[in-house]
Each structure stands twice: as C-alpha cells, then as structure tokens.
Amino acid sequence: MGLFRTDPVDLSDEHLMELVVRGDERAFTVLFDRYQRKLLTYFHRMLWHDRERAEDFLQDLFTKIAQKPGSYNPERPFRTWLYSVANNMCKNEYRRMATRTAAMPELKAEHNGHVQPNAGAEVDRARFNLRLEEELEKIDPDHKATFVMRHHEDMSIKEIAEVFGISEGTVKSRLFYTVKKLAERMPEFNPKPTETAPTERR
User: Of 149, 151, 157, 166, most Cβ neighbours within 10 A?
Assistant: First the structure.
C-alpha cells in the first residue's frame, strides 16, 4: 500500500507508525517483527509465566494497534508508548484476577517443575531466578513492572519514566527500594542493590 524509498526495516518506529496510521500493512508487519519477541517476554514475566496468556496478550496488543492506530500519540516515543499500553493491560488483568481466587500458586508450581538439575553455577542461577520471580510476584505491580523494564528489558531510566508518566527520580526510588526489599527477602543469595538511593519522591 505504502511506497518505501528505503528498506522499511531501516525506518524508525515513529515513521513506521505514521505509515500504519495511513493503513500500510508492511509497516505494521515490521513493527510487529521488531517487538513481538520483547513483548512476549515482558508479558510472560508479568503474567505469572503463563505462556499461553502471554501469547494472547501479545495478540491483543497488536490487534488494538491494527484496529486503532490513531490511539498512538506521535509526540511520544513509540517504544515507551507501547510499553505503557502493555503495562496497563497487565494491571487490568491483575484487577480481574483479584476478583477471583487467583491461580498464581498453580502457575508457580508449574513453572518450578520445569527446572532441570544441572551443574554448579547453572543450578545456582536457576534457583536464584526462581526465587527472584517468586518474590517479584509479591511486590506492588508498578514496582515489579519498573524492575522488569530496567533489568530484563534493558530500558533506560528516562524511558521508564516516560512509560509511567513519572519523574526519573521516582523511577530510581522504585528501583532502589525494590532491590532493597528483594535483598532482605533473599538473604541466601545476598543480592546487593545496584542503584543509588535517590532523594526525589513521587
């Protein structure tokens, strides 16, 4: 539909989204290919390691973009806008699950059952990752999402601040106190906070 003077793979997210708004399917495909793996991993971590649910959410997210591309605010970086939509979807799911008897223990048990015995450092890493995921389930959803974006999605402090619409100081505060809390709850691994304690609060 659209005509590219350059390879669409080389276009910025924002340029591609402009074309999506105009109905360009190729631009949509490039964006989907660019983000599907990252968003699937994000949903998987945020939604109790439920692979099927993560895939459904990924599908729902891009279906929304395809149906209502005009909901994107071109004044925002596409990546941070995309993660803000994904994060809101997760928070809505938390609220929905809270109205039921949540199935988190079953999901965790299923996840834990997949750990394979291995040697040395790999066993320690697997045990640490499992304990980390268990403790992340217990903290505030916004703090968990901030931690996941920073340490698993490699997003910058500035990007995370844009996702949540908060100050960079608040992001640093969330990260510091989340890591501090994890360290207190996981003394056997002795994780050390890597962020400097901030002075700015929300």
Answer: 149
Q: Which long-range contacts (CB under 8 A, 24 or more apart) does 64-72 make?
A: 65/20, 65/28, 65/31, 66/20, 66/28, 69/17, 69/20, 69/21, 70/21, 72/17, 72/21
Helix 25-46, helix 51-67: angle, nearest 10: 150
Q: Which domains does the chain show, CATH number per domain?
A: 8-102 (1.10.1740.10), 115-202 (1.10.10.10)
Q: Is 87 exposed, middle or buried (0-12, 13-18, 19+ CB in 10 A)?
A: buried
Nearest-10 crossing angle of helices 157-164, 141-151: 150
Chain segment 31-48, per-residue pLDDT in tens: 999 999 999 999 999 999
pLDDT in tens, 118-127: 445 666 778 8
What distance in Å separates the CA atoms of residue 134 and residue 128, rounded to the nearest whole number? 10
| Residue 138 buriedness (CB in 10 A; 0-12 / 13-18 / 19+) | exposed
Residue 196, token pair as written in the block: 């400097």
CA gap 172, 157 in Å, rounded: 7
